[in-house]
């Protein structure tokens, strides 16, 4: 639908110069797009200037500036405490239910954050879909990051059918349930009871009957008598290196450990890795964390 408006017909060859002058003089009406008509361009103008006639223009849709945010299922996490921006964000995406602002950094043993609700339904719970899997998450009670989805697919791609996998820091299960697609068996452990609760729900949700949830401190896993694993995932970037001896004890000769670590120097954890095995090590950057710090993954082949 158009709107009737004052406009100026300018021959095409003069259009660019005239457009600039209209802009400088403040006569160009920016609510509308200029449009061609025959050999002329019709410029919408703000008032009845000499030569102006009435014509119809399509209105330019208003450009809405959206605040920076990260999407996790139906929740948007904003980086600024801006309730008006949160309302705009909520209105811009029908799939969004809630806009949150993190009141704290990721903290504590359970790696969780406290949030305040900026807009929408007051909840920190949502369902995330990732490569055909669904994960119920509660962002204030158990860790979840959608940013590792590509990494989970990379590890899945490196696996052989039927492997025995251990996820030492499983959270709500995104690694464990993704890898279960190829694995014979996945043992998924976490220290946080709410994370394990959600992990159990997610096992059911994805019918991943080959995932065994375990509520345990990873340090105790070597004492539980599991036969050696083909692959061990260690996704606790701030502290996983401490658990490397336990992981090496649980991994078979020739098996692989994926060690995620937060570091400031390339090869920072190589000396520690060399204390547990002489096997092949490949190091990659997963994502940046802060200036000068990044999440790295070490793929370690265990030689015993
Ligand atoms: C960074 S999160 C990773 C969760 C999951 N792998 C993911 O990608 O969403 C680390 C998890 O390790 C758990 N955790 C911390 N210390 C632990 C320990 N000593 N033993 C077992 N789990 C632990 C936390 O509760 C948290 O869920």
Please state roughly what percent of the residues sit in beta strands, choosing from under 5%, 5-15%, 15-25%, 25-35%, 35-45% or over 45%: 35-45%
Count the DSSP helices. 7
What string gives the helices and strands in order? EHEEEEEHEEEEHEHEHEEHEHEE
> Structural class of the secondary structure composition?
alpha/beta
The level of helicity is 10-25%
- Global mean pLDDT: 93
Number of strands: 17
Uncertain regions: pLDDT < 50 for 5+ in a row? none
Q: What is the strand arrangement across the widest sheet?
A: 13-12-11-14-15-17-16
What is the gyration radius calculated from CA atoms? 28 Å
Hetero ligands: S-adenosylmethionine
User: Mind describing the biggest β-sheet?
Assistant: 7 strands, mixed
Based on CA inertia axes, which overall geometry fits?
elongated
3D architecture notes:
Keywords: Cytoplasm, Methyltransferase, S-adenosyl-L-methionine, Transferase, tRNA processing. The chain contains seven helices and 17 strands. By secondary structure, it is an alpha/beta fold. The chain has a seven-stranded mixed β-sheet. Strands 2-3-1-4 form a four-stranded antiparallel β-sheet. A four-stranded mixed β-sheet has the order 5-6-7-8. Strand 2 and strand 3 form a beta hairpin. The site of S-adenosylmethionine has 23 residues, from helix 4 and strand 12. S-adenosylmethionine (SAM) binds at residues 109-111, 142-145, 148, 169-171, 174-175, 189-192, 195, 217-219, 235-236.
